[in-house]
Amino acid sequence: MGKLSKTEKKIAYDSKLCQLLDEYSQILVVAADNVGSNQLQQIRKGLRGDSVVLMGKNTMMKRTVRIHAENTGNNAFLNLIPLLQGNVGLIFTKGDLKEVSEEVAKYKVGAPARVGLVAPIDVVVPPGNTGLDPSQTSFFQVLNIPTKINKGTVEIITPVELIKKGDKVGSSEAALLAKLGIRPFSYGLIVLSVYDNGSVFSPEVLDLTEDDLIEKFASGVSMVTALSLAISYPTLAAAPHMFINAYKNVLAIAIATDYSFPQADKVKEYLEDPSKFAVAAPVAVAADAGAAPAAAKEEAKKEEPAEESDDDMGFSLFD
């Protein structure tokens, strides 16, 4: 079979992307900077089953998404277009989004610090023997790394922050790290956004637990309740509080006047004879308290040894 022409490749790519858009409703948009073809192949193997990885030029993907949205009338697909910026790819999945994201994160490959590369993390050279001979000390001197000669090799005395996150890697730093065999950076697909049935959200949402959601919902209900009470606007969240507050107001009026109603009668009765408060609650407590000392006394009787009588001893106190 001969090679496909550019036009044929575009048609095949359009067809594949349209098929995936129809078949899958969940898509992870991933950054693919510094990810090689071999590494990408490993990721595809690891995700095989519920997920499909599709790479391509942003212009081609945007064009296909627009045309497919027009043909199907599903404008939700258009939410993907703003996400197709930079070196990105798409992972179509039917699996659990959190599990797929975690699986993608496993495939990271160590990489050397190349000259001119922007460091994604801080690079710290650890102390210890480098295995390099004393003729290599010039590298360390240029970078102001304290060293000493130990048993014919260069030894780094203290840990050194060689490169800071966001800085470009210089030629001296790159050469030293290469000599030390340190591959400080690791690269893989990074999830940037999540598309789910037309909704787009940050991958951090995938880390939310049920407890987090319940806490956020409870916080929202509290805010709605507070706002409703403040402006006296009835809502389902504020209704119980409004009823209780209304009951308190009516009860206050009943106590201050001759007006009464069944729920207020008992409160008035207690206010007229406060001693009933003491009778209502402590009766049960007293019963329990009375039983406890009796039980304690009974226990004490059991534990206390019987005293021998004087008669048993064979003499009387008056003998």
Describe the fold and architecture.
By secondary structure, the chain is an alpha+beta fold. It folds into three domains: 9-108 and 188-207, 2-Layer Sandwich (Alpha-Beta Plaits); 123-185, Alpha-Beta Complex (Molybdopterin biosynthesis moea protein, domain 2), CATH 3.90.105; 210-259, no CATH class. The protein has twelve helices and twelve strands. It has helices spanning 6-23, 37-47, 58-72, 97-106, 137-142, 171-180, 210-231, 239-256, 262-272, 275-280, 282-303, 310-313, and strands at 26-31, 51-54, 88-93, 109-111, 123-125, 128-129, 147-150, 153-156, 160-163, 185-187, 190-196, 199-201. Strands 2-3-1-11-12 form a five-stranded antiparallel β-sheet, with helices on both faces. A three-stranded antiparallel β-sheet has the order 6-8-7, with no helix packed on it. It has a two-stranded antiparallel ribbon with strand order 4-10. The termini are far apart. Mean pLDDT is 80; it is low at 306-319.
